[in-house]
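Report of the visiting student (M.T.), summer placement. My assignment was to run the structure pipeline on a short list of targets and document each run. The first record concerns Polyprenyl synthetase.
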Amino acid sequence: MQIPYELLGKVFILIFVTVLVVLSIALLVGAYSFKKHKILFPNFVLFILYLFYGPAKWICRVFSIKDTLVDEILVEVRNAVMLDKFKEIKNGRVVFLPQCLRHPNCKARCDPLIGYECKLCGLCDIGAICKAAKERNFEVYIIPGGSFVKKIIKAHRPESCIGVACYPELAESMQGASPFMVVQGVSLLRDGCYDTQVDVDEVIRKMEECDDV
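After the run finished, the structure tokens were exported:
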């Protein structure tokens, strides 16, 4: 029996074109939602962009578009999808901050279970976030890596969280955490894994959204 290579080739091309079209539609809808702050077909966008994450970034690079656009869309669409549930939760609320927000001269020790313990020294913005979080019934964790998030989720069972990270890290971690709790993400203003910055007012605004209900 001969293998129908010609037919297989046509089927492959058809599948490739179909995926490309669907992915392009998801990117366009997601980009529109992101730019206009008007979320359209969020579940479709999230499903397609996570399923074809690598190809979506490839398409962006082909058209000279920054490939972090994919991550930005994923984060902002998920923020919009989960916002109403996030506002309703009054207890078990946490903020995950990356350790790279710490000042280079930070003397805080790293607890093996909960991460760095801020001393409120004022050298970086973490202290301001910690103070605001305490006033708004949020627990802050300054984490060295994703493994700490898993430990904290397992030990403390938070119901909702605000995550701070660069867009690629947020897109990945929000996808991983969303089955366990309601998530919101705030992107770093300056990333690079060292001496990074975040918009403190934006983090506080996220906390205050819970008081709007």
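The longest helix spans residues 5-36. The radius of gyration is 20 Å. I thank the supervising group for their guidance throughout the placement.
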